[in-house]
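Hi again,

Forgot to attach this to my earlier email, sorry! This is the prediction with magnesium ion bound. I've pasted everything inline since the attachment limit keeps bouncing my files.
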Amino acid sequence: MSDTPYVFKFGNGANSVDPRSRDKTVVGGKGANLAEMASIGLPVPAGLTISTEFCAVYNSNGKQFDDSLRAGVADGVKHIEEATGRIFGDTANPLLVSVRSGARVSMPGMMDTVLNLGLNDQTVQGLADGSGNLRFAWDSYRRFIQMYSDVVLGLEHHLFEEALEQAKEDNGFHEDTQLEAEHWQALVTVYKQIVQDELGRPFPQDVHEQLWGAIGAVFDSWESERAKVYRRLNDIPGGWGTAVNVQAMVFGNMGDTSATGVAFTRDPATGEKAYYGEWLVNAQGEDVVAGIRTPQYLTKQARERAGAKAPSMEEAMPQAYGELANVFEVLEKHYKDMQDIEFTVERNQLFMLQTRSGKRTAKAALKIAVEMVQEGLIDEKEAILRVDPMALDQLLHPALDPKAERDNLGKGLPASPGAANGIIALDADTAQQWAERGENVILVRVETSPEDIAGMHAARGVLTARGGMTSHAAVVARGMGRPCVSGMGTISIDNRSRTLRFGNRELKEGDVITIDGSTGDVFAGAVPTIEPELGDDFATLMGWADKHRRMKVRTNAETPEDCRMARVFGAEGIGLCRTEHMFFDAERIPYVRQMILAEDEAGRRSALAHLLPAQREDFRSIFKIMAGLPATIRLLDPPLHEFLPHSDAEFADLSETVGIGVETLKRRAGELHEFNPMLGHRGCRLAITFPEIYEMQARAIFEAACEVATESGEAIVPEVMIPLVATKREVEILKGLIDRTAAKVFEEKGKTLDYLVGTMIELPRAALMAGEIAEEARFFSFGTNDLTQTTLGISRDDAARFLGAYVDQGIYPRDPFVSLDIEGVGQLVSLAAERGRKTRPDIKLGICGEHGGDPASIAFCEATGLDYVSASPFRVPIARLAAAQAAIKG
Ligand code: ADP
Ligand code: MG
Ligand code: MG
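Structure tokens for the complex follow:
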């Protein structure tokens, strides 16, 4: 044996010694949990796991298996043989195994499991004799050839499906269950011939060749395209690798006392404390999720609620069900979390084949976290860590407007909550293309598979004709937070004419539909949606989060509606109020244009005099809504030509309003053209040249603040923010202007207020000079959008063409405009924070870029000791939770 043991055994008492055998990073999630379940005495078929570490060795060593690995696997197979009393490859008493992939986190895109490995023309007879069930043996063999040929040999599975259809037709059968032993046996001959014809060599009869072929295919699948796409979408490092699990088969297809199923220890859609699952009698492995037969409910209650007839497992197999329920309790106590499990019953005996922490909707995540605290299973901090902040987004998802008219096309299963409408796309590529064009797309498929993931991600919702609540579509959509309706049996899709029927209604690709993933309903056309209500569990968990976080959470908002919404979501102030948005108002834009196009200061001042009352009104309403909470108002930032007219009609309009000829206006506009507006005449540079603009804005702020303070009695402390500063001198000059304006207003109003003048830090020079700038500035707000643009030298508006390739090739781990480039831009933030604090220990520090709503960036802000993060209103709950998680993790 080599120094690094790459092979671990589990089951039959083999796994208690080495903690690495239960470590996900070593043996993958599936292997770790199988070993863990075995170690707490649950019935797990024995097996071995080749560690994830070997995946890298294999893929870098020319895809070779060395002698030590072969010896390790041989030893593991012996362990399984001892546990089962069967021998791998033995003709009389053959051991069959499954070969299963398993990365650290469950990952669609990896090789599909191969079941019944170890069958060949001889061992199939041994299996028949041993089980006394000829049909079962040949059924298992044909399943094995089909699966192995598909996933290991790379043959198209439709070749085999067509042969099966043919066999049924020849015999006049409609269901697989009508085929007897001799039919399966005949089909095996056909299947083997297909392999011979396609590959020019026979289906492998040597069981060791079968085993090593499957092991190699698992490791190869780590580098497959679909695995890479999934890793990219989910930020999974390529270096993790996958493990391979080889496990003794147990058979759910041995007749009416056998079954297979999947279950959750609580309802993954609602979080209700009720067992939830699906099962099938006389079935194997993926039959439940594949959507070939319609699965039955696990519990009597669920069956009755759904009004279904086919018996639940609780009713049909009370003894095995009782054992299963007991296992659920053991698992929840052990893992202290809701579990998603796979099980098989072989002749009334229960076996556990998988457990993992179950994917759940945001609603369920909240309910489960809150109830587990009440049940004493976990504490508040743990509950906070249990909920993915990004998942809260789902709760804020729209629902259908109950008053809206609707044209119902039918009903499927409510597989992932939320409502969405969009145009029908019949395949993942089309969905992606149309979404890139800015369309809202609903992906409609018979069923989805891992190749569809990018299309599902691009779509606003997913609808499938087949598959249950635990189908691929359902599980993936829930994870992505996309609404999904699955198993809508009345749909038939014609891929050639790109049309589809819902019962007797015909629609075509590109038509608009609406899906409601909370009820399973599907409608023709776009049904309007309404905002959801946040429930008690949300309030409880957010209350805990607020108690445990250190940073404040503010919002980026400028309209009264946004400010109100943000307060409902728990914002504790405004971190960024962009005043330019107020300039675009239809009534104001002519004066803005007049100001910009004025030839001199007097002309500008007369236009600004028109804008002053409007700006003051804006600030009054914001101060009123924020009721004493801090509000940072940024003075005008964008290049002036952004406000200029574009079309001839707009120029003509303006000419009429301001009484200047069209030609003169066009010439002035031409003069304002800039080659590089992002680095041009914008930000505080506008006020260095035209101070009267900031003077008007400062006046509007202070007048509004004085008035609202007097009317409401609240202490209003405006924070006036100067954008795009690079030097201390800029701040000095403009702060002088703001202070003089404040003094004038206070004298006129006979009232004095405290206020702060501070700056954005959004240029590398400002970050470097932060120590000096802090002599003038009372606060810094990190404008990480511009700071990212200027540090990386990448224009955000032009990045789309190449940034994808940068992320794909790992040049940046994630889109740096979505998640802060902590390594690079983060250095400037830390350094500026440190230098600023050195000059002014009580300087207020915050972040107002998009990153203020991104959990990873928020964790960085916590570590840097910022006072607050500021996010768009809908991201405020995400930021509150992420800030609490960051504080708890320390
Ligand atoms: P996935 O990760 O896609 O769920 P799994 O390896 O868990 O793949 O297996 C696919 C199906 O095969 C599951 O239903 C599982 O329970 C079943 N299965 C896997 N190994 C065995 C086994 N040793 N005996 C019986 N069924 C198995
Ligand atoms: Mg699978
Ligand atoms: Mg599984």
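The two ends are 42 Å apart (CA to CA). Residues 601-626 form the longest helix (26 residues).

That should be everything now.

G.
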